[in-house]
Design goal:
6-stranded mixed sheet; metal ion binding; binds molybdate ion; 4 domains; 413 residues; Molybdopterin molybdenumtransferase; binds ligand LQZAQKY5; transferase; Molybdopterin biosynthesis moea protein, domain 2; Molybdopterin biosynthesis moeA protein, domain 3; molybdenum cofactor biosynthesis; alpha+beta
C-alpha cells in the first residue's frame, strides 16, 4: 500500500461544452457605459441601438451625371429640350419646367416633376439645348428617398463590435456619438520563479516570460483594458497576495501557470483559500488543468503555464467569457467546415484543439494540415498555424474527411 491518492481518470475531467457553459453562467456583462465620439468608438461594443432620425437619402437624387427629364416630354429618340436649370450636388432645385431638361450631377436632388435621368453619354448638348439620343424609362438613374435607410429605423443593434462601416453608417444619419459598454478590465499575472523578462540576460535554468505577452496581446485584441501585474513568486503566500491585489482592481483576473499538481503549483490552493474554485480540469488537449473560480466576487481564470496551453485555453474559455462581459451578442468561436489533408490515427479521450493550417492546394481546393508537434511547449507552432482544428474525442480522421476549423482571424477579435 502506497497511501497515495489515485491519479484522476479521464472521466473526472469536465467535457468542453459543460466547462464553457459553467464559465459563461458566471459571466456578468458590464453595467456601465460611456458616450464616445465616432472616431473613438472603433472596436468598442455598442450598448444602445442607433436609430435614424432621417431618411437616407433625404430626397430623390441622381445616380449619374446627365439630364433630369420628364419621360412624357420625349416621344422619340432625338428629341431636343431646352436646358432650364443647372443642379450641382448640394443645391436645392426648382421644379422642372415642363418641356425642358435640367443639367444634373451625381448626388444632386432630382427636381420635382422629373421622372428620369439620362446619362450624358446618351445626349448631345448645344446652344442651350440637349438632344436625347435614347428613350429613358421612368425612374431611370434616380436613387429614391429612403432607399438606404428609413426615418426611425434601427440601423445598428446593441451587442455588435463597432467596425469602420458602423461608424460610417452612424455618420450617414448624422449621429456623431455612440453609447458603448465600458471595456472589461482584466488583471494578468504570471507565476514562475524561472521567468525573466525579454531584454534581460538569460541565466541557467531560466526562461523568458512569453505568456505575459501572448496573454496581454490577446486581451488587447479583444478590446480589454489590461492591468499587467507582472510575475509572482512560486509560494502560496505570494500567490494569495498577488491574487487578492489583482481581484481588487479588475473585472476578471487571469493567471498563467501554477495550476497543475506539483508542490510548486499554488494557484489552485490560493483560489480555494480566497474564494471558490468552480472548475478544474477539462477533457481537452492541450490545456487540461485549466481552472476557473472566484477570488471574493471577482472571476478568475487560471490558464496552464505551457505556452500553447495558455494560448488555447484563453481562446476556448477566456475569450467567450470576456466577450460576454464586454456585452457582445456572439461569444462562441466561429468554426468552419474544412477538408482534412492529414490522417489522425490516435483516438483520444480528450477533445484536441490542434494547431493547423488551412491552405489552398495546387488544384485550388482548401485543405487543413496539422503541425507535427503535439507538445504544448512548442510555441512556434502557433505562428506557423492559422487556426485550430478540432479533433473530436475517440475519433480517427482520414484525409478527405470533413473537420471543424477555428480560424485565428476570427478568434482574435
Ligand atoms: N504530474 C503531473 N504533471 C503535470 C500534469 C499532470 O496532470 N500531472 N499536467 C501537465 C499539463 S497537461 C500542463 S498543461 C502543465 C500545467 O502546468 P502549470 O499550469 O502548473 O504551469 P507551470 O508548472 O508553472 O509551468 C508549466 C510549463 O510552462 C512554462 N511556463 C510557465 N509560465 C510561463 C511563462 N509565463 N512564459 C513561458 N513559459 C512559462 C514553465 O516553465 C513550464 O515549462 O502541467 C503539466 N504537468
Ligand atoms: O494540457 Mo497540457 O496543456 O496537455 O500540456
Ligand atoms: Mg506546474
Amino acid at each position: 500500500m502506497s497511501g497515495c491518492d489515485c491519479t484522476p481518470s479521464v472521466s473526472d475531467l469536465k467535457p468542453y461544452e459543460e466547462a464553457v457553459e459553467l464559465l459563461l453562467s458566471h459571466a456578468r456583462p458590464m453595467q456601465d457605459t460611456e458616450t464616445l465620439n465616432l472616431h473613438d468608438a472603433l472596436g468598442r461594443v455598442l450598448a444602445a441601438p442607433v436609430n435614424s432620425g432621417i431618411d437616407v437619402p433625404g430626397w430623390d437624387n441622381s445616380a449619374m451625371d446627365g439630364y433630369a427629364v420628364r419621360t412624357r416630354d420625349i416621344p422619340a429618340a432625338g428629341t431636343s429640350l431646352r436646358i432650364s436649370q443647372r443642379i450641382p450636388a448640394g443645391t436645392a432645385p426648382q421644379a422642372l419646367e415642363p418641356g425642358t431638361a435640367a443639367r444634373i450631377f451625381t448626388g444632386a436632388p432630382v427636381p420635382e416633376g422629373a421622372d428620369a435621368v439620362v446619362m450624358q453619354e446618351l445626349t448631345c448638348e448645344q446652344n442651350g439645348e440637349v438632344i436625347i439620343n435614347a428613350l429613358p424609362q421612368p425612374g431611370a438613374h434616380i436613387r429614391r428617398r429612403g432607399e438606404d435607410i428609413r426615418q426611425n429605423e434601427e440601423i445598428i443593434q446593441p451587442g455588435v463590435r463597432l467596425l469602420p462601416q458602423h461608424l460610417g453608417l452612424a455618420a450617414s444619419v448624422g449621429v456623431g456619438q455612440l453609447q458603448v459598454w465600458r471595456r472589461p478590465r482584466v488583471a494578468v499575472l504570471a507565476s514562475g520563479d524561472e521567468l525573466l523578462m525579454p531584454g534581460q540576460p538569460l541565466k541557467p535554468g531560466m526562461i523568458y516570460n512569453s505568456n505575459l505577452f501572448t496573454l496581454a496581446g490577446m486581451l488587447r485584441a479583444l478590446g480589454c483594458e489590461v492591468i499587467d501585474l507582472g510575475q509572482v513568486e512560486d509560494t502560496l503566500e505570494a500567490t494569495k497576495a498577488a491574487l487578492t491585489n489583482a481581484a481588487g482592481q479588475a473585472d476578471l483576473v487571469i493567471a498563467s501557470g501554477g495550476v497543475s499538481v506539483g508542490e510548486e503549483d499554488h494557484v489552485k490552493p490560493a483560489v480555494e483559500a480566497l474564494g471558490k474554485l468552480n472548475m478544474w480540469k477539462v477533457a481537452i488537449r492541450p490545456g487540461k488543468p485549466v481552472a476557473f473560480g472566484h477570488i471574493g466576487d471577482t472571476p478568475f481564470l487560471g490558464t496552464p503555464g505551457n505556452p500553447v496551453s495558455l494560448f488555447v485555453t484563453f481562446l476556448l474559455f477566456g475569450r467567450p467569457f470576456i466577450r460576454k462581459l464586454a456585452g457582445l451578442s456572439e461569444v462562441m468561436p466561429t468554426t468552419i467546415q474544412a477538408t482534412a489533408g492529414f490522417d489522425w490515427n490516435k483516438p483520444d479521450k480528450r477533445r484536441e484543439f490542434h494547431r493547423a493550417r488551412l491552405e489552398k492546394q495546387a488544384d485550388g481546393s482548401d485543405r487543413v494540415s496539422v503541425h507535427p508537434s503535439r507538445s504544448s511547449a512548442v510555441l512556434s507552432s502557433t505562428t506557423w498555424a492559422n487556426g485550430l482544428v478540432v479533433l473530436p474525442e475517440n475519433q480517427t480522421i482520414k484525409t478527405g474527411d470533413q473537420v471543424q476549423f477555428m480560424p485565428f482571424s476570427e478568434l482574435l477579435s
